[in-house]
Amino acid sequence: MAISELAEQLEKADPALARYNRQMLWAPIGVEGQKKLKAARVLMVGCGALGTVLANTLSRAGVGHMTIIDRDFIELNNLQRQVLFDQQDIKDQLPKSVAAQRKIAGINSDVHVEAVVADVNHNNIEQYAKDKHLLLDGTDNFETRFLINDVSIKLNIPWIYGACISAMGLGMVIRPGITPCLRCIFETSPPAGMNPTCDTAGVLGPTVNVVASWQAMEAMKLLTGNTDAVSTRLFSFDLWDNRFQQLNVSRAREIADCPACKHHNYEYLSGKFGSSTTALCGRNAVQISQPAGGKVDFDRIAENLRAVGTPSFNKFMLKCAIGEGQGERRKEYELTLFADGRAIIKGTHEAAVAKAIYAKYIGS
């Protein structure tokens, strides 16, 4: 049968899926696989470099329901690699998840996107992961990845790990009870200062695209039921040196005495290793988290801040540049406050300094 005839048959099979015609021509997907994608519910944790490529690719592929959760807002240096955003999003002071939701609405209005502006932590991740078919890693730190790993095992939901720095990338599909988990491979987070970050090593856009595209392909295999085709190895590459590897990690669970998948001791999900401050990759910034349930009065806070700066705000967040000290000791900071009381203090990587600024201008 000619390709054109097959394409016509696919369109007639379900006209609502006609936009995915070229995708359904791939036999392992077909009409039935496309219907599975449409019914799929995915949680994307983080919508920065990896997350935007994932959200863009999977929305075009027809994944029907995506919850995108991200704690951050958009800055100019994000546009080099975060493909869903543009300069207007920066002018509008949009959080990343909200900007992604708006962009996807213009790409594929059949996809339902829930945008969540929040920090994923041990108090809320189960709520967001519940009833999802797949969890996707768009984060930039091991603490959050270990948290995803814990909830994946506890709720028996597969997840796809991805990481990139400079020209190097890693990826791995984790299927509870079938593959090793992330803590079988990486027992603990690297010590502070020992792991390269985008602050110290940079990150190239093509690196991001390769990792996220690999994640998206594995996601499509899982969501369409093509589990035999799903990768069982740790994918590793260096684009600059043209090096690609697939590492056999199948015995890692057997060898490791993993607290998560062997003993079901969810140390990150219990909050044992959680933190209230987080240094943000590549930002010279610290995030300060507050207990859930608080509400922020932007009008009142903006009025108070006008004595030291020129605050601007919308319903999502407030921003204000703040100068501290005099002469050579003067330091410039940027305060971004979110509706849930969370704040990002830019201009320092020291938690103590960030907390002091928060307490001084927002309150304890």
Largest sheet features: 8 strands, mixed
Number of helices: 13
Low-confidence parts lasting 5 or more residues at pLDDT below 50? none
Give the terminus-to-terminus CA distance.
70 Å
Radius of gyration: 22 Å
Helix content: 25-40%
Strand tally: 14
Strand order of the largest sheet: 3-2-1-4-5-6-7-8
Oligomer kind: single chain
CATH topology of the largest domain: Rossmann fold
Q: CATH class of the largest domain, anyone?
A: Alpha Beta
Domain count, please report it. Answer: 2
- Net shape: globular
CATH architecture of the largest domain: 3-Layer(aba) Sandwich
Mean pLDDT: 90
- What is the succession of H and E elements? HHHEHEHHEHEHEEHHEEHEEHEEEEH
